[in-house]
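Lecture notes, unit on protein representations.

Consider one protein chain, 129 amino acids long.
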Amino acid sequence: MVEYVERTIRRSLRARVLRFFGISSLGAMVVTALTDLVASSGTGAVIFRPLGRIWMGLHEGSLQSLHAALYEMGVGWLWTGVLLPILSQAGIVVFGCLAVLFLAFAWLIPGHPRRRRDDHDPRYDRRRH
């Protein structure tokens, strides 16, 4: 019984963490979209900024530190093959994909079994129905 409770708590915690990251990514997507819409309000077209440009605008030093650290560790292929294509995509798309992935994984984790309202009602007797 104790193992079942521990497993259920771990599953519930995993689902909550994934939901938190999913909703946070969704919020970042909305903020990015609104920022891009406001920034492009003077022009005739909507311009969505790439994630790399957004990151450079927020904190350029951390982006450069990550780039240097990856090349110093000898995994420069990770920068050119994985991160650079992601950073060149629109921020709204990246945050939206992350939100969908996190929320889908949270939905796939089985949680507590759903109980009916009358499961704990002593007046309800299942044998009669």
